[in-house]
Design brief:
Helix content is 77%, strand content 0%. The chain has 349 residues and is mostly helical. Helix 1 runs parallel beside helix 5, helix 2 packs antiparallel against helix 8 and helix 3 packs antiparallel against helix 9. The longest helix has 41 residues. The chain starts with 11 loop residues before the first helix and ends with a helix.
């Protein structure tokens, strides 16, 4: 069992891969901060600095809860022989590029699916379509990608309707007071489950790189080293602490006008779906889940009040993420091959 011990001599490419993977984890943190705190900030239950700090701490804690998703990434998506150091590095770079682009335009796309798309695209360029475990991609990525926001929307709608029934005769001021406090708990749960699911994607990629470098044994019972868990949890927490205000504005203000009761319902639904998916090793997008939950709550509140043009932009970004990240990663792999060509190395020297 490999734990905290690293060999003295690491390949330069492996070191670069690990550093870039942690950079991706950092961008994942600031890109997806909105998932956990957009609603609690928009409803003014917590101030932005307090919300970001809470999210960072609980993202870190959530990353230690399980490694089921990390094992899915490490062994369930591409064949081991196709997962070379160059392929993994290209996948991460492709995901980072997509993260930065969507962050710049304030589009809440999925960092998780960007990473998975990058891994699949680079593996195809490396070894062909047979290098991808399509059954695993379908069961652990594509189906959860489609079903998880629907589940979040349905659960958000149900929770909102139950709240309407329970508090139908309660004054508005009392409802606001109750859910002003309850939303702190739901936001905390959302932050914890975000770390539980999202940080594991990078853990899986780094573990895959270690297997490719023959530092860990391949097989069904693959082990996620403790130092990988700590590194990824720390990188995501630091990224979260830096905030992602462009996307927070989209999530918290441009879908529907939120009040504490709506924020609680959306976060409770989102956290429940993500927790269940993580337990089953499914690499879901926290962005998709909380967005679906907010839409479900919005439909329960006021169908006409939902800003469907925002929904169209978000769904378009979701559909584009996997193929776009795959294309970028494939291009990155070609670039890495070109730079490692003997003629290019000689030219640099």
């Amino acid at each position: 069992m490999v734990e905290m011990h690293l060999p003295h001599a690491l390949s330069a490419l492996l070191v670069i891969t690990i550093v870039v993977a942690l950079l991706f984890d950092f961008t994942n943190g600031f890109h997806d901060t909105a998932n956990a705190i957009a609603t609690v900030v928009s409803t003014r239950v917590l101030s932005p600095p307090v919300a970001v700090l809470m999210c960072a701490v609980l993202n870190f804690a959530g990353a230690f809860f399980s490694t089921n998703v990390a094992k899915t990434i490490a062994k369930g998506l591409v064949e081991a022989e196709a997962a070379t150091q160059a392929v993994i590095l290209a996948a991460i770079v492709g995901a980072i590029v997509w993260n930065v682009l969507t962050w710049y335009f304030g589009i809440p796309s999925s960092s998780s699916h960007a990473l998975i798309g990058g891994l699949v695209g680079a593996a195809i360029v490396q070894s062909g379509f047979h290098a991808v475990k399509w059954e695993g991609v379908l069961e652990k990525v594509v189906l959860p990608m489609v079903l998880s926001p629907i589940a979040g929307g349905v659960l958000g709608f149900v929770i909102m309707m139950v709240i309407f029934a329970l508090f139908a005769k309660t004054s508005q001021s009392k409802v606001s007071f109750v859910f002003h406090n309850l939303q702190r708990l739901s936001a905390a749960a959302m932050s914890f489950t975000h770390g539980q699911n999202d940080a594991q994607k990078t853990m899986g990629v780094i573990t895959l790189a270690l297997v490719a470098n023959h530092m860990l044994p391949a097989g069904k019972d693959i082990h996620i080293p403790t130092w990988v868990v700590i590194s990824c949890a720390t990188a995501m927490a630091l990224g979260t602490a830096s905030g992602g205000w462009r996307i927070i504005k989209t999530m918290g203000q441009r879908i529907i006008r939120l009040e504490p009761v709506h924020g609680f319902a959306a976060e409770a639904a989102g956290a429940s779906v993500i927790f269940a998916a993580s337990a089953m090793g499914m690499a879901v997008s926290t962005t998709h889940v909380i967005s679906g939950s907010i839409f479900g709550v919005g439909v329960a509140k006021n169908l006409a009040g939902v800003r469907w043009n925002t929904a169209q932009r978000m769904v378009a970004a979701w559909c584009l993420t996997l193929p776009s990240a795959a294309i970028v990663a494939g291009a990155c792999l070609f670039a890495i091959r070109a730079m490692s060509h003997p003629a290019a190395v000689a030219l640099v020297k």
